[in-house]
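User: Okay, second chain of the day. Same drill as before: sequence in, structure tokens out.
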Amino acid sequence: MARRTPRNALFTRLRTPRGLTGFLKTASVCLLVAGLLSPLTQATATAATASNDYCGGQCSDILPPGENGNATLAQILLNQAFGTQPDHAEDQLGPYANLASGYSGLTDAKINTFFNDASFGVASDQVASTEKPAGRGDVTIVRDKKTGVPHITGTTRYGTEFGAGYAAAEDRLWLMDVFRHVGRGGLTSFAGGAPSNQGLEQEFYRNAPYTEADLQAQIDNAVANNGARGQQALADAGAYLAGINAYIDASDSGRYFPGEYVLTGHKDAITNAGTIEHFKITDLVALGSVIGSLFGSGGGGEVNNALSLIAAQSKYGVQEGTKVWESFRERNDAEAVLTVHNGESFPYATRPDSPQGEAMPDAGSVTQEPLVYDRTGSAATATATGASATAARATLGSAKRGMSNALVVSGKYTASGHPVAVFGPQTGYFAPQLLMLQEIQGPGISARGASFAGLSMYVELGRGQDYSWSATTSGQDIIDTYAVELCQDDYHYLYHGTCTAMDKVEQKNAWKPTTADGTPAGSYTMRVWRTKYGPVEYRATVGGKKVAYTTLRSSYLHEADSIIGFQMLNDPDYVKGPKDFQSAAQHINYTFNWFYADSQHTAYYNSGDNPVRASGVDAEFPVWGQPAYEWKNWNPATNTADYTPASAHPNSLDQDYYVSWNNKQAKDYTTASWGDGSVHRGNLLEDRVKKLVAAGGVTRSALTKAMADAAVADLRAEDVLPKLLKVVNSSPVTDSTAAAAVSKLQAWVTAGAKRTETSAGSKTYADADAIRILDAWWPLLVKAEFEPGLGSDLYGAFGNNLPIDEAPSAGHGPTGSHAGSSFQYGWWSYVDKDIRAVLGESVQGGLAQKYCGAGSLSSCRDILIGTLKTAAGLTAAQVYPGDDQCSAGDQWCADSIVQRTLGGIKHGRISWQNRPTFQQVVEYTSHR
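Assistant: Same drill. Structure tokens below.
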């Protein structure tokens, strides 16, 4: 019997006088119908641990909140009213959360207290259910008792992929539907006009304004260019879609489809009228464009770079201004933590000796291209326009959110002699989660791990029979900005000397209130003007000529290409060792760092289609849209070009250890985002893992503890605060307020500079006063340290390139606050280098000038003490002003992680951790 199939449907009309006020708000329900949830049929026993598993019970994983991301209407109402959870909706949240307070006593034997056993197969006494989806005889889906993860076993390739699609729909149908609409820019019309929905669809439509023909063409090209594997991918996708659609039909006729379809007005609870649209192959490309845009598209920000360079040159003159700008840019900082740390150089996007083709805007001429037109109703409110502005900033800058992190140690330094890895993607926290767990076993496929919902025909991050792999966002620059000269009017441009019309692409959205989202009716049109050099993002003048600035990324029109690399990673006949793994990763065109471990070897490879730029082009700034400055052998019809060879990408085999937390990959390899300097969150891993390796005898639990310890550390307090206190204490502190603050901060540093509870579940931080003081002090001290020397214009421009701070309570791009990931972007390296220079200490690659107190130690000390006194006087309510989740002054809550609701099921907050959402702990004992 299919799981979660109720005996009967909800026939009584639901009266909700106050309504379900949205998936992001508390719901009140006046009528609940009991007895709608039928028990699962106990399945017959299946085989125990598979013979093709070489991990020896030493592979573990975790993915909160839980595997089950679907809920019927009755389950949603029970959750909203009483907090009850559907089976397996949050059974991984507790173990995940508990690591923050329980890691200090971790041993190898206790790892699966905080993680799942990720062995292949399900022991016979652990089988919860077995089903033959749609009655097929060539595939079986077994779910285990502990987590409800689907273990899909097929005797044919088609049946295997059909089962993968069916299981995906069982666990994430609503979420998949949401994100296929996000990928097309149509979320608000589907799920409601909440400002957060408006911002989300706008953000992705800017990056990927595709027509249906564009989506289909990407599939056709990916298949045509990849031979037999391309044909296999097409067949796999077809079977996967058939499985999804079979579940849609079964759940629709059986009335156990996700309840959100009723709450958003797509289905009627009484008559079952309405339709859940079948999935089609272009939906997979739309979904892929969202994921690639979120996590795998490094670059952009060239216009912001130009504006800050102009500001620097205006302040200091061209020569000195350029020197100052380059010192803050830190393209190739000698003190930056590196993933490939053996000294090997991989030059990419380096500064040319004589830049060519730059198209710098005239001062004051830059305007951002509008995306949204014809606003009506709730789309015209200040809240809605604010959401649009936030979405634009997230899209147009280079500070992309990172997937993280990875700690991998060679067997030479482990207790067993086998490599150990702790790694996973940091994809935010959602309910249901963007990722889902699964095991797939069938002809040519043998893997377990996480996949993005709706793209789970293959495991994307996980393990094979005798190897595991994972990724972090790398962020190298695959996006360039071109200045196209306008002609005739604002919507024609010169292309190779011919006045050419821009292509107008529009998406019209309208919404009305529903039970799920009470946002009043509204509508708008998103309009993008596309050129052969990509979509228009800004307009300006260059030397008095009117131009449009466009952005072109190498993965644009190629969202489907990476499917081949994932297919290879799942194929046990393809990946038999580290070089095969690297070869598979080379077929992934998004910008990721890939890590690998088996029983003998470790490996690393940086993926992405890195375009070969014309000689003299500086990737940091806009260039003219002219043949001389285009990518080498660029074809605008297909957006293809020459790409740097695999050997030019940072790569490595069997290095002593690897760490990655979205830091710099290797010497001379420039990433698009700013901040790869002397202090980076990667240092939190580097310092701990380096110490473990030096001591030797590394175990799974030791490496996990290193990760978990870094996950609760405050980067500013651990790596910068001691130097600030050194300046403050360079003379006796006589002011009583400042002295008390210094004492608290010093005690916190001595205790380890962690943001942890006094005891598990206390919801009160140890060292709470010190944490409050630093959270208040950091923005004040940065401003006082740098703005007098830089001037307000340049200080503000640099702030647009790199945010000042990213404490746990700060906002985090499209996921908002409470997203866990912290300390990726901030001015900690600038403060570190400047303070060390003022102290007279050695600095490699220092800033062009000394800023704190203009280089005077006593003046710098006065600035720090003055701002420290101000910070110490701010109350918790002022530092943590409260939001939709927390009351003002609640420090723990301000940091806490929230599973942001994308459906009807809500979960409780957990204590802050800065760690991967999905995570593996692996140590293989043998190899094929």
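The radius of gyration is 27 Å.

User: Thanks, on to the next one.
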